[in-house]
Amino acid sequence: MLGDSRTKPMEILLVEDGLVDARVTIHALRRSGLHHRLTLVRSVHEAILFMKRTGIFARAPRLDLLLLDMILPDGTGIDVLEEMRELQSDAARVTTVVLTACEDASYRTRCDELGVCDYIQKPVSEDEFLRVVRDHKKLMIHLQQAAVSAAAGNHSPARSGTMGV
Predict the structure, then answer these.
(1) For site-directed labelling of 11, which of 46, 59, 150, 158 has its Cα 20 to 30 A away?
(2) For residue 6, what pLDDT is reported?
(3) Which residues neighbour 9 within 8 Å (Cβ) at sequence distance 6 or greater?
(4) What residues have CB less than 8 Å from 42, skipping those under 6 apart?
């Protein structure tokens, strides 16, 4: 069911400047069998353009999952998270998973304050990473099905009854 092509693909933004780490993440997602589409950006600036849907990202999809490195060439993942907080309401908050080699506890604390779902230290265990992504995909499918059911309930034809003559 997680790889089912009838479900909407999970839209993933990977913010990672290290090409080796990006390649490992991309291959793990391919091996997972999850129905997804992934966009790779390599800087804070590109991530913000994507989230704002501006410039070359004007037609960017609505994100389901943000995979975020903490140390980037033009800033930190915290910069991305703070900008995302400005752009989104709490209800529309994108699930974020930090994948980082940074061992600074202040980053972890700030990520917790900004609502990061998972904080995974590099080198990342593929099993742990895929568990997190699969859990999010299951939640996404559940929410899609609930939305479809709610829409069907709101637009169902009126019950037929017997009219008195």
Answers:
(1) 150
(2) 60
(3) 35, 36, 37
(4) 15, 16, 17, 22, 72, 73
Separation of alpha carbons 30 and 48, rounded Å: 25
Query: In the structure encoding, which two tokens stand for residue 96, read together?
Result: 């974020």
Beta-carbon contacts of 101 under 8 Å, excluding residues fewer than 6 positions away, are 70, 71, 121, 122, 123
- Using H for helix, E for strand and C for coil, what is the string for 27-52? HHHHHHCCCEEEEEECCHHHHHHHHH
Asked whether the beta carbons of 62 and 11 are under 8 A apart, the reply is yes
pLDDT of 93 above 80: no
State the pTM of this model: 0.81
- For the segment 39-80, what is each residue's pLDDT rounded down to a tens digit? 999 999 999 999 999 999 999 999 999 999 999 999 999 999
Asked if residues 26 and 1 have their Cβ atoms less than 8 Å apart, the reply is no
